[in-house]
Amino acid sequence: MEKRIYDKQTGIYYELQGDYYLPCLTLPEQPKVEIGIWGKRHLRYIKQHHKIRYTNLLTSCKLTAYLADIDKQAEEMFFRLVNQLSEKEGVTEQLKAENQMLWVRQMNNIRNRATEIVNAELIYT
């Protein structure tokens, strides 16, 4: 028996696996896009909790674009929130020059709150 055959009617190659010929199916190449931490977190979340959405995006070749969009939205939201919260709470460059430890403590607090908001609003929904 041949290891690989081609069916002219369907245009599909079949490969011998044990006693059966199985179709050699592959997804089209998706564009290479750098996905950041936010997109990777969302990918992990939909793989575990929304398997149908993940499968639909993967098989329609829209997963990479979807994750890149989520990553971009989350990044913009995070920086916007950090800027707004630091302005509201008076965490300025002057404070950084006067009391570095206080500035670091307050900025870490702001960044953690912004991360929680982005996670709740975009990543884990």
The level of helicity is 55-70%
Number of strands: 3
**Overall 3D form:** rod-shaped
Q: Quote the beta fraction.
A: 5-15%
List the secondary-structure elements in sequence, H or E: EEEHHHHH
Protein name: TnpV protein
Pfam families: TnpV (PF14198)
What does this protein structure show overall?
This protein has 125 residues and is mainly alpha-helical. Helix content is 63%, strand content 11%. The protein folds into two domains: 1-30, no CATH class; 31-118, no CATH class. Strands 1-2-3 form a three-stranded antiparallel sheet, with no helix packed on it. Strand 1 (4-7) and strand 2 form a beta hairpin. The mean pLDDT is 93.
What's the topology here?
Layout: E1 4-7, E2 12-17, E3 20-23, H1 37-49, H2 51-59, H3 63-89, H4 93-98, H5 100-123
Antiparallel strand pairs: 1-2, 2-3
Helix pairs in contact: 1-2, 1-3, 3-5
Organism: Ruminococcus bovis
InterPro entries: TnpV
Protein name: TnpV protein
